[in-house]
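Revision sheet: structure tokens.
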Amino acid sequence: MPVDEAMVDRFKGALLGCALGDAVGELAFRHPDEMSLRRAVDAAWQLTYTDDTAMTIALAEALVEDVTIDPQRLGDRFAAHYRREPWRGYGPGPPWIFDEVKYRGIPYGEAAGKLYGGAGSYGNGAAMRAAPVALAFHGRPDLYSQACAAAVPTHTHPIGQDGAAVQATAVALALEAETPLPVAQFAERLTATARTPEMSKKMAAVEALLASGAEAYEAAHRIGRSIAVHESMPFAVHAFLRHAQSFEDCILCAALNGGDRDTLGAMAGAISGAYLGMAALPVQWLDKLENRDMIETLAVSLSRIKDDRSSSPT
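Predicted:
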């Protein structure tokens, strides 16, 4: 089968876009206005990513290696990445889960389900790393369930899994979208994908805010920018749909309106990169991205195993 170079470029764009959004968003915590952030990016000798991209890389590696997602093996890979680079900025949840599994010998899903009084996490940690699931399973009816499976090692709450699946769907839709982007239809598809009331409500708000032409700060205030997935992932989608033709403007919108800036950047960057492709990412940013070649190689590997994913049982 001939290689679809344009699609491979979009695969690269999704993973590299995630990492760039993460790294630039992390700088935005210290440089929360556009001029200061641009100067900081220009001055940086390297754009260093956080746990958002580290876990995305781990998930991509797992998908290249395995035909389907096994939460236990995936959790082991997450834990190995954490123990190799614990300084990446992990929240308290994953390290606690990794220790529970290591010292108590229980499954990752059981350990993750103990968080927050037994409710599990509905943070955005599973959504921030969901791009590789979209690359491996786009166009398949099991995309939603595979995204939920990839969330299990750290997120068992229905909202946490729903957010990861909606984010994966956004990347998948962007990967296959034509130009010009049908913004309203894109947002409607994501609202229809959501299965929890909390996520459905926020995605419907994205639709309404786009239709009304609301300013970005107003949208961020009404949608939310916290670490809760239903109060952050929808704004990342909004940033993309507001700036569908510019990766740079999309990231600046996601990262400069407060809240969980690195993760907002990572989620928005994955969607924007999947739509625009690597060729549209700022060269001056790419040239500074930490482990750029490794991330690009993973994207190419995912593009090569897509046919295997399509032919495997669902």
